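Practice problem: predict the structure.
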Amino acid sequence: MLIVVQIPFLLRGATEEYIFKSAPINLGNYTPPPSGWIFTWNLCCRNATILNLNNAGGLGMTLRAKMFSYNGLPAMPCYNSSPAIAERPLEHFCSGYYYQYAQTAFDKELDSLYYNWDLPADGNAPGLTYIPFIAPYSVTNPYPGFVDLDHNTGLVSYSSVLGAQGDFVSCIRVDEFRCGVKVSETFRDIQFNVSTSCPPVYGGNINYPPYAILSWGGPFVSYFDTVNAGENVALQFMIVDTNLNDGPTPTFQQITFNGISPQFGTNDTSATDCLIPPCATLNHPSPTTFVVGEFFAFNWQTSCNHVASFFNSYQNKGVYQFVLRATDDFCPAPAINNYLITFVVVGPEITVNGDTLFCNFPGTDFIWYLDGIQIPGADASFLITTANGVCSVSTVAAGECRLFAPPKPIIVAGMESETLNLFNAEVVPNPTSGLFNINLQSLNSGSGFILINDMSGRKVRQFDQHFRQGENNIPIDLSGFDAGVYLLHLSTGNTSLHRKIVVN
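Answer:
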């Protein structure tokens, strides 16, 4: 584990930044408890000038993060990297101005992220103290003015009250989920200053931040779209700022633009050297500077790689975010706007309507499977089911590669009376190193089979099995197979039961 701590110290007119980096720490073959492990780093003391905390000068500043177990896996070997917030924190705001800045984080495993306000902290675990805000400030409104946090993107919109000034603290928590299981919490505890010493721009107006205009419409704050793997996506926009800096000879402000995302390639202009190639590109390298306005073209050729299963989190989609940052050169506090582009890249999925399954993906060369076995002649985008089991389908995306839909257990209409409760099974241990037992309770005796598929639908093991009435204990060995998630299917007659197995 690598712990990096960045501490900005705000001085009037300048910011000092200190970076503390620990040596790697091996957490051993231990599993975090349900409450998680908490990692803390404490600094004494907070500034006495902070206005939204009581007796701030007597409080320390604690940076913290939490790590939770995923499906009972031990901490080593490491199965997760915490999300990293893309932007350095803003430390200086002008009173009466509007800002939109990004607390957006990127996660290299593409886990789901959710953003919330939280309380700042002092001390070290387990003696951590959570610090309440004093009225009129609160955990969800720690600023003097109006503030809004987008819980899905991490974008913060802030309009400060004209005339407000002083130092304030806020805290953002980033929750990380994998297949619906929380695996980490990352906290950003920062101090910022609101100042009344910002002069007007030319004409006597306050300084407004740069704004973005889509090529086919008006200004935008964020853009969201869902695309199929293999599609090319393109977006054109302009960054505009017509403010003039005041002075003996008024001049247009210089605007600096940055594209920020691990999915951008080198300098934001290359289709290589990103998290998952092919990379997204811009027509200008980052950073780029200009005055008044500049045209930008975003382009990305998606591929099957972009719906890959990360660390066995088989969601058949990938969520990719791109932060666009535009700032002017206004002094003492540049105005800033952050814009967020989000693309959800999806693969095939199976939907059910009566006895018919549909593959909702514009692919070619469809192949349907039942219990991991290819169904002869089933090569259309739909399948009429005639038997219980686990169905899956594969298709070729944009002539590029073959993608599999997540397997879907199917019960044919009219066969429900055979019930799925004729027997019940438990897999122990799960997760497993490969060796596990199926502990099964059956109400009747009978012959059937056991089938194990990987998440692509490929058959891994299959053998006939006699189930006796009462308790059955069936040993299984998958120790020679790759780590991942597997689907276990038990069938006897018209009765089926399905379990997921995690092999680590």
